[in-house]
Structure formats: C-alpha cells, structure tokens
Amino acid sequence: MCTSIAMAWGGGYFGRNMDVEYSFGEQAVILPRRCPLQFWRQPAQAEHYALIGMAHVAGGRPLYAEAANEKGLYMAGLNFPHSACYPAQPPAGADAVAPYELIPWLLGSCATLAEARAKLAHFQPLGLPLAQGLPLAPLHWHIADGSGALVLEAARDGVRLYEDPVGVLTNEPPFPFHQANLRQYQHLSPRPPENRLAPGLPLAPFGQGMGAVGLPGDASPASRYVRAAFHKLNAPDPGEELARVSDFFHLLDTVAMPRGSVATPEGKWDVTSYACCFSADAGVYYYKTRTNSRLCALRLAGAPLDAAAPLLYPLQREEDVRFVN
Q: How far apart are CA 200 and CA 198, in angstroms?
C-alpha cells in the first residue's frame, strides 16, 4: 500500500505515505555527492547529485523507498504486487537496472523530469536481488519535479512510462485503470451541490461538503487514488513554505491508515508508518511517524554534501508533546 502526491506549488512539493505492516529498518538518509554509486550492469557514478529521503541501509548502501535530489527531482517506489515483473535477463542493449538501484541511478544523474524521461527511454528492470535474504520488492514508481509527474511501470507486457497529469499514485491496478476510473467521479466538487434532481423542489443542502457525496472513503488503492486526487486537485496554494508543508501533510492525512482500519491476510495491521514531504525550493525533507505526529526536518543546505559516506538520521519515533502551561 502507499500513496504518493506531487504538488506544483513553488518549485514543487513531493511526498508519500508509507503504508506497511512492519518496519523495514527505515531512517532518513542523505547521500552526499562523492559517495560512489555502484550498479550491477550500469557504469558507476563516482560523483552525482546529492540525495535525501527514507531508506533501509544494507552494507552501507541506502535502499531508498523515496528520495529527492538537490535539483528538486523526486522519485518514490510504491507496492505493485500483482503486476510488477523483473526478468533475470533483460533484452540486449537495454539499460538494465535492479529495482533497488533505480532511484539512485536516476536521481544521481538527472536534474529534471525531462532528463529522467530521456534516461528511462531504454530502461529495463533487472531481476537480481541485492543479496540472499533480500527479496526484490514488487514496485512501480512516481517521478516528479515542479514541471509535472510521470509513472513508471514494469509489467509482463513490458515497461511503460506514463504522463501523470493528476500527480497522484497509489498501488494496483496498473496506472491506466486509475486514470480511467476518475471518469466516474466527475460530479464531485468542494462546493455545494446544484439541485438537478428536481429543480422545482426546495432541496437545499443540509450541511457543508455535500458536493463531494460519493467520494470513496475506504483504504483500497483505487479509492485512495480518487480521494487523494480530489483533495489534491482542489487544494489552493497557501503561498508560503510552512503553510504549504502543513497543507501537504493534511492532504496525506486524507489517505492515511490508522491502526485497526486495515488488516492483512496474515492478521497484521497495515498502518501509515510515516509520511514525508520534500520541498524543492527549500531543499528540506520533512517527515512524521505514526508514533510521533510532530514534524521533523532535514536540510540539504548546511549538510556536508561533498562527503564520501551516507549521513544517517534515525527517526524520531517517540511522541513529542509541547506543553503550553
């Protein structure tokens, strides 16, 4: 599960809910420019753009769930369990990249969405695990900057790169379904409804919000997509950094999973373990966790971006309450 949102406010605000029933050892990680990037089938990047995001670190190597680079390009991997397909032997001549390599491979060398689109022209997934005991996560990807967004999917019928005019991604089914499914919800509006049923009858709304009657409220990927799209597309730009960040997290809250709302087939609770927002103009990565709703923030500016090793920041998980009396 998971939801990713890309907003075009200012230079762009990008982030996601991580919905999962377990911890994957995540922590906030800055990858400096001179920390070498190694890939199975692609040339190494001895120097690259600095990255910031949430990752599990294996053998000193950050495996990013989502990240953004210092130029403002964002990328997130979201669960795609039924459709993702990674052949062990991609076609000859393809840019074969393993799923866990894809975020640093793209963000390390691309400054813009246009550059990312061009670099992905010959991409093929490489079905090669990083190590024994680290199975490949079935993913599709959301890619965005201030100019727009893309969705990348690698399924049995091949690799597809879709333009994303809405700026939202959830999970299954494949992306074209979510775009087509929006057609069922064209009547939704944040404004009061118009009486089209019987204009001659005095059928005034009896409460605010009735223009959105029919907005799905469950946690399924299709419903979260519609709900996130509705709130995102109707969100006015508040015009300044902290107000934008606050509103962005409120958007993510509309599709968050509190504990007890979704049970997995194994009987575990699927919850929103963290939510994050990257501000491209400010170069700041904000996050909150399920057990600490106060925002934490990491700045790229001032960090040693020419260092040769990842900078690790364990998550602040304890509830941080500010007493005012």
A: 5
The pLDDT of 283-307, averaged and rounded, is: 95
Residue 180 has phi, psi (to 5 degrees) of: -65, -35
For the chain, give the percent of residues with pLDDT over 90: 89
Cβ atoms of 276 and 64 closer than 8 Å: no
Q: Average pLDDT for residues 207-231, to the nearest whole number?
A: 96
How far is residue 280's CA from residue 291's CA, in Å, rounded to a whole number? 26
pLDDT at 135: 86
- Residue 123: both structure tokens together: 């991409």
Contact yes or no for 5/17 (Cβ under 8 A): no
User: Which tokens belong to 128?
Assistant: 């090669």
CB 98 within 8 A of CB 91: no
Dig out the tokens for 56 from the structure. 């599990």
The token pair at 239 is: 């015009």
Domains of the chain: 3-191+210-313 (3.60.60.10)
Helix (H) or strand (E) holding 121: none
Q: What is the mean pLDDT of the chain?
A: 95
The rounded distance, in Å, linking the Cα atoms of 46 and 26 is 25
Instruction: Please identify every residue annotated as catalytic.
Output: 2
At 158, list the tokens: 């091949």
- Spatial CA neighbour of 221 closest among 168, 274, 158: 168
Task: Tell me the average pLDDT across 240-269.
Answer: 96
Confidence of residue 22 (pLDDT cuts 50, 70, 90): confident
Q: How high is the pLDDT of residue 23?
A: 84
CA distance 53 to 67: 4
Which of these, 123, 85, 88, lies nearest to 106 by C-alpha position? 123
Q: Model pTM?
A: 0.95
In 175-249 the beta strands, taken as DSSP E runs, fall at: none
Helix (H) or strand (E) holding 181: helix 175-181
CA dist., res. 232 & res. 254, Å (int) = 10
